Amino acid sequence: MTAPAKTPVVLRNCHTLEEFEACVALEKRIWQTDDIEIVPSALIRVVEETGGQVLGAFHGPRMIGFTFAVVGVRTRAGRPQPFLHSHMTAVLPEYQNKGIGRKLKFFQRKEALSRGITLIEWTFDPFETRNAYFNVMLLGAVMRRYHPNFYGITTSPLHSSIPTDRLVAEWHLESARVRAAAEGQPPPPPGPEALRIRVPKDIADIKKNDRERAISLQTGMRNEFQRKFAANYGVTCVESEGAEARYVLEPWEHAPADLR
Question: pLDDT tens for residues 133-155?
Fold first, then answer.
């Protein structure tokens, strides 16, 4: 049953098995698979019980989006630091492009900060430049790591049976750039030493119609990212123009201290 149009979207922590099953139903619909890549409700229950996050967006009684994250530990400034790895964030297609994903992420930030957690990370496909723009320009995340074929070849048609290369988004929750993003402000413009990696926006069609070309483009992109990250550059902006998007990388030695 669809809630009335004026019913507000409510964000809240999820605690019940019914809510965890609703997360699974969204996974199956959005990733178009019911195979082994689906995270089962039992594991989502464990994540919630052991200090992770399971957060839902509800329109009336209906779950229309969710995000969930597991607990991890990173060493920062020589000390172990707890952080959250945000494994999945999803919004139903009919509710996308309405700002719900952004609200979910900033609700995730608020909940993490309430427990003293100041870092959230997640992976995403560098070919998905709309996600890249969202992560960097609207959330204030940065990237310094690239994982080739992170999840292996999956059964989801969204991955087109090509390697699941992933960038790692770092979301430093108390950094000046994330505070600015929370107020709707974009990151500062890149400096003169910035380098760029170009990605075609029509990659979905390329993956569907020319798998070999998609793999060739992916290999070239992978090599560029790995070289630039090895040279201590990090992604600080994403540009979009015409048929291409551009990842903008800057020397990390110039990055603010609150990102290190």
Answer: 999 999 999 999 999 999 887 66
- HEC secondary structure over 26-54: HHHHHHCCCCCCCCCHHHHHHHHHCCCEE
Asked whether 164 and 154 are in contact (CB, 8 A), the reply is yes
SS3 171: strand
- pTM for the model: 0.92
Non-local (6+) Cβ contacts of 100 within 8 A are: 9, 57, 64, 65, 91
Give, as one character, the DSSP assignment of residue 59.
E
The two beta strands, 244-251 and 195-200, are antiparallel
Residue 76 has pLDDT above 50, yes or no: yes
Token pair 């390697």 is found at 163
- CA–CA distance, 175 with 70 (Å, rounded to integer): 21
